[in-house]
Amino acid sequence: MSEPIIITGMHRSGTSLTASFIQAIGVNIGQNMFPADICNVKGYFEDIDFLEFQRSLLQKSCPPGDPGWPDWGWTESETLDRSLWPSYIPEAKKLIASRHGNIWGWKDPRTSLLLEFWHQLLPNTRYILVYRSPWDVVDSILRQNRGVFPQRPEYALKSWGFYNRHLLSFYRQHRDRCILINVNGFVQQPTRLMQLLEGKLGLIPREPWDAAKFAKIYDANLLRSLPTDHPIVRLINHLMPEFANLLAELDQIADIPRGDRGDHELNADPLPILPVEALPLLMHYQSLIQHQESHQEQIQLRSEVAQLRSELDRLTLELMTIKRSRSWKLARKLAHFSQKFRLK
Question: How far apart, in whole angstroms, are the C-alpha atoms of residue 45 and residue 79?
Answer without folding.
Answer: 28
